[in-house]
Design goal:
Helix 1 packs antiparallel against helix 2 and helix 2 packs across helix 3. The protein is an all-alpha fold. It has one domain. It is globular and about 50 Å long. The protein contains four helices and no strands.
Length: 105
């Protein structure tokens, strides 16, 4: 069975995408959130980023050709912006850390 043939992988990908999209829509009102709302939003973003990191690691570790191609496509796309997948995760983490620091002020 291929990586993308797995019902579990398909469900995880779908849920991850939906959760991320939902947070992005919600994030458009971030400036209107009270302190606790901002903290909850940041926590949810951290959870989604952690899930995404694990999901991508599963792609990297897979022997499936389609999974390997997906990783290479991501590297190519990010490379166009001059960053690696690790740098992308690092930047997301730094952004969330900055957001946390601002909330605590």
């Amino acid at each position: 069975m291929g990586f993308f043939d797995s019902e579990i992988v398909q469900q995880e990908a779908k849920q991850l995408f939906e959760d991320y999209q939902s947070l992005m829509r919600l994030g458009s009102d971030y400036g209107k959130f009270d302190r606790e709302g901002k903290k909850i939003f940041i926590e949810r973003m951290e959870e989604v980023m952690d899930r995404y990191r694990v999901f991508m690691k599963r792609f990297e570790l897979s022997e499936d050709f389609a999974a390997k191609m997906t990783v290479e496509q991501l590297k190519t796309q990010l490379g166009q912006f001059g960053i690696t997948p690790q740098q992308m995760f690092d930047q997301m983490h730094m952004t969330l850390e900055r957001m946390k620091a601002e909330v605590d002020r």
